[in-house]
Design goal:
Shape: globular
Number of helices: 3
Helix content: under 10%
Distance between the termini: 32 Å
Largest sheet: 10 strands, mixed
Radius of gyration: 17 Å
Number of strands: 17
Length: 285
């Protein structure tokens, strides 16, 4: 499994800054006016919308800099990945239709560029329902992900910081997504995972799907389109430390290549885009 573990910046330990212009109340009102089934189920269960980014803005504009920061550069990111991450609008921008678009490109010289956005230093969550509505890219060698890292990564490193992968997809498995937790003693290929499959040969790149975790003290449950996939608890990791009872920040990225997805080949078409309709963090009652 994945082990994305390069964090390069000191941490701002502020707990909750609202994702979205206008504060939590405005975000909640905006969401409430267009509740989908997942949000409705969260709302009826007594959850409170803590933070959200609906990605409403002008086409070509930058993601909200009060929420999203960028990891930039190359070097493989611990997984022999091929892309260079940039903060350019060529690789990440709003589309004017309510989506964040992360674009992986093959450049004229044959190199790859993409984007990796994070809320490190702006927003952390500790427990709740963390969800995003995403349409993943398609193609051999593409590796989109929606995930979280422990905010203490700058102090304790990876995997001691913990990692919660809400959704990862590798292009050669178009109908499968993976959710995984990584920590000391259960990282990389030893992470504890949940896989979800679409029926009848459908691909996750065909449409938007809602990916989420219900994260509570001592447990993480993965959801795809509101359906629970697997719950991992403290008991499942045996004598290894459970490192998920602390603040985490959110990451959205599209990697190209790497040890898990393999490299793009002649069938891979570029550019490829991951569309993110919204990210929402619900606090459980």
């Amino acid at each position: 499994m994945a082990h994305h573990h390069e964090a390069q910046h000191p941490l701002d330990r502020r707990r909750f800054l609202t994702l979205g212009v206008g504060g939590a109340a405005a975000a909640a009102v905006a969401v409430g006016s267009a509740l989908d089934s997942t949000a409705a189920s969260a709302a009826t269960s007594g959850a409170v919308l803590l933070a959200a980014d609906e990605f409403d803005g002008a086409a070509g504009s930058a993601p909200n800099p009060g929420i999203w920061r960028f990891d930039t550069g190359a070097g493989g990111w611990g997984n022999a990945e091929l892309q260079t991450y940039t903060d350019s609008r060529r690789n990440s921008a709003l589309d004017g239709a309510g989506n964040l678009v992360i674009t992986a490109r093959r450049e004229a010289d044959g190199s790859y560029t993409s984007a990796r956005l994070k809320t490190e230093g702006t927003f952390t969550a500790q427990y709740g329902r963390i969800e995003a509505r995403i349409r993943v890219p398609r193609g051999q060698g593409l590796w989109p992900a929606f995930w979280m890292l422990g905010a203490d990564i700058g102090q304790v490193g990876w995997p001691a910081c913990g990692e919660i992968d809400v959704m990862e997809n590798v292009g050669h498995e178009p109908g499968i997504v993976h959710g995984t937790v990584h920590g000391p003693g259960y990282s990389g290929a030893q992470g504890l995972s949940a896989a979800a499959s679409l029926p009848n040969g459908a691909a996750f790149a065909d449409d938007f799907h809602v990916f989420g975790v219900d994260w509570r003290p001592g447990s993480v449950t993965w959801f795809v389109d509101g359906v629970a996939q697997r719950t991992v608890t403290r008991a499942d990791i045996g004598s290894s430390p459970w490192v998920f009872d602390k603040p985490f920040f959110v990451v959205l990225n599209v990697a190209v290549g790497g040890t898990w997805p393999g490299s793009p080949d002649a069938t891979t078409r570029f550019p490829q885009q991951m569309l993110v309709d919204w990210v929402r963090v619900w606090q459980q009652a």
